[in-house]
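Handout, section 4.2: multi-component inputs.
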Amino acid sequence: MTSVELDGLVREFGPTRAVDDVSVTVADGEFFTLVGPSGCGKTTTLRLIAGFENPDGGDVRFGGESTTGVPPEDRDVGIVFQSYALFPHMTVGENVAYGLRFRDPPDGVSTAERVAELLELVDLPGMEDREPSALSGGQQQRVALARALAPGPSVLLLDEPMSALDARLRERLRGKVKEIQRELDITTVYVTHDQEEALSVSDRVAVMHDGRVEQVGTPEAVYREPASRFVAEFVGDNNVVDGSASPLETRGSSVAVGSASFDVAESASGNVAVSLRPEALSFGSGGNELDVVVERAEFLGDAYKVYCDWHGTQLLVKTTDAPEPGPATVTFPPEAADVLPE
Ligand code: ATP
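Output:
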């Protein structure tokens, strides 16, 4: 097992800095996710780790050793891509065995034994003789995972492996991937644009934006204490409200937004952006009270997403009961508001 260190990594394509000074260390055995919108540089970063791209600056180190000049097949990584990329003319077993073309199975077991073991691991026992075309998308992706894991790599790289699957299959497969990752204790770098997926499977995530890492942290930290406006808006549903803060005499501050205002527990002054999570807001009285106009509600099954207008600012509220459209009061405690760092 091994750590993966990205140190000042840069990759340029003409005028585009696809990866712009990225430094993160993925710990040994960690499930680490690169998340961000399309074009932010996730895939390029993964390709730099895999060795399919060479950096224009910086270095990728595995367990402290530079990978400069080391070709992909010698990097001890297993890779699963978005497309299943199984060979259609080979059986499932042959596809998994293909993963052993550069390296014998670990622990001196035979290829057939190793293939059987891996198919067991991905919950496809005895499927060796099937054709890939006879498998569902989720099953094909599990075969691709088995193939990537066949040589017993130290690092597993996953590039949007579930994006071609429907929502339910995606959820099942991500549970499986997580379980296998834990079982093998394999250092994993996962790329996804889906922030919910990132939060649900990762030990830590790096939120990327325009080639740079905006924040690295546990899913909870990134969600609850976003380091920037971009992170606050990208991770989860959120309200980010711009206002002008002035300290209160007792504690905290008052944030003026146009002619209205609310209190926050933090001391702040001047122009601020405040993150108000929709689930921290409710309808009723107490704490801060904002007079809003309820515009519409969407039923999500376990909650309603209620769209409100607060003096020209849109506020999203997540509650278990939806008020009728019209005037209402939204309430939240000052502690629920998070003043974003500059
Ligand atoms: P997506 O989720 O859409 O795959 P991403 O976050 O993985 O996006 P990258 O594929 O890493 O982003 O691309 C980052 C930037 O680099 C984009 O602006 C992209 O157009 C550009 N880019 C990536 N590969 C190349 C290439 N081979 N040639 C030119 N530009 C490239």
